[in-house]
């Protein structure tokens, strides 16, 4: 069984700053580092580090050999990442001393996905497999529909948040992942409760407080507590949770167990600087005791 991930692949440029800049403010960065990122790549890496077989579907620009090498070193299958004649996506990430961040993203090759390439990548997918999707590429709805027709479970992270993008993909989604702010924004935009949405399962991450599971069919909802740590960089925390959660559920963990496991992975990640490189391995999560 395989986790497929249609998602962004970025070169992340991290600027360490004293605080997140105010409008019109110019700040001197304390440090610059560059690494692999993008919500899609992060989730693929997280799922692979959690022990799942992962195939990434996406695109990069010329000169991106290092990205293929990095993903493969983490255990991600890159055969369906196309090299396109547009720039690789990238992110400018300001990380403050308290761990908070502010991010600006250029889509680049992430916005040049092809329905034909996606269909080819999912050709061998079937029941028991999972498709992870985020909101940083095009062809999200088309990919979800192809996956659904093959019996593949579709898991959608509604980030970066766009209410209309969520509305479009919900009918082809099996599980919706949101953070607390996104959940409130979605309820306001659609003028309806999460419990009334046309998706079977919803997981709302609550930061250090943990996560909430919602079963819209039964109306049941419950929470798992978070793991409190001293955060140094919250970038990629949600992606770590999503990848670990998908992998844990995929291998048969019960929802509360899977959410607790994903929460520990996310908590461990925020104690480290970086994105994909900072996502912990499964053995580290299992041994983690804050």
UniProtKB/TrEMBL annotation:
Residues involved in substrate binding: 10-12, 38-42, 136, 239
Protein localization: Cytoplasm
EC number per UniProt: 2.7.1.15
Sorted UniProt keywords: ATP-binding, Carbohydrate metabolism, Cytoplasm, Kinase, Magnesium, Metal-binding, Nucleotide-binding, Potassium, Transferase
The record's free-text note on cofactor binding: Requires a divalent cation, most likely magnesium in vivo, as an electrophilic catalyst to aid phosphoryl group transfer. It is the chelate of the metal and the nucleotide that is the actual substrate.
Annotated residues for binding of ATP: 179, 205-210, 238-239
Primary localisation category: cytoplasm
Cofactor(s) for this UniProt protein: Mg(2+)
Domain Carbohydrate kinase PfkB span(s) in chain numbering: 3-280
Pathways involved: Carbohydrate metabolism; D-ribose degradation; D-ribose 5-phosphate from beta-D-ribopyranose: step 2/2
GO molecular function: ATP binding; metal ion binding; ribokinase activity
Family as reported in the entry's similarity comment: Belongs to the carbohydrate kinase PfkB family. Ribokinase subfamily.
PANTHER family: RIBOKINASE, SUGAR KINASE
Annotated protein name in UniProt: Ribokinase
Naturally occurring in which organism (per UniProt): Kangsaoukella pontilimi
